Amino acid sequence: MNREELIAELLHAAHVLKDGGYLPATDGNFSARLDQSAAIVTRSGVEKRALTQGDFAEVTLQELSPRDASSEWKLHRALYLSRADVNCILHVHSPALTAFAAASRCPNVHLLAEAEMTLGGIALIPYCPPGSGELGETAARYGRTGGILILERHGAVAVGGSVREALHRLERAELLARVEIDCAALRSRVEL
Ligand SMILES: [Zn+2]
After folding, report:
1. How far is the CA of 26 from the centre of ligand 1 (A)?
2. Which residues, by Cβ under 5 Å, contact ligand 1, an ion?
């Protein structure tokens, strides 16, 4: 896909995620790989729920702190450099996955067959300050495989070979997390 097509895909993802309540305030950031050495990433401080074509910065993977790119660029950069299979990264603070992040746990991917077949595994990334180079290095180390990373005390990341794959993984992971929380509540009611 060319730059315009990738931006259209990311705008579609933002629209879907906005409708699902994944994007409070200015939280979250998205990127897509242009080629082996460059990517587009959302600019810093914009509302992802109202994203437009002009809200993307084009950066090379050599750049550690490009001006006006997302504050989480270091996380995106580290994952692109360490994983050739990743062409899109979506980071959000969605309610159910962020509950797992706050509890320092991964959802159980085996709870739902669809999740087991499509998510490609879920990894827990130990806490590092948001926006730090340490977070990028730790995510690359603990998230060598799999489609979903849970950032401890922070939020979630979906990666994919395409924007659609990352988006669908994120939606299915959020559903899985919601179902696991609801399941636990139901089981505790039955035991009363
Ligand atoms: Zn975040």
Report:
1. 10
2. 155
Phi, psi of 114 (to 5 degrees): -60, -40
CATH 3.40.225.10 applies to domain 3-191:
yes
Instruction: Render each residue's pLDDT in the chain as its tens digit; 192 residues.
Output: 899 999 999 999 999 999 999 998 999 999 999 999 999 999 999 999 999 999 999 999 999 999 989 999 999 999 999 999 999 999 999 999 999 999 999 999 999 999 999 999 999 999 999 999 999 999 999 999 999 999 999 999 999 999 999 999 999 999 999 999 999 999 887 665
Residue 21 Cα to ligand 1 midpoint, Å, equals 15
Do 26 and 46 contact (CB within 8 A), yes or no? yes
Distances (CA, A) of 92 to 12, 28, 97, 101, 149: 15, 4, 9, 11, 11
- What is the distance between the terminal CA atoms of the chain, rounded to a whole angstrom? 55
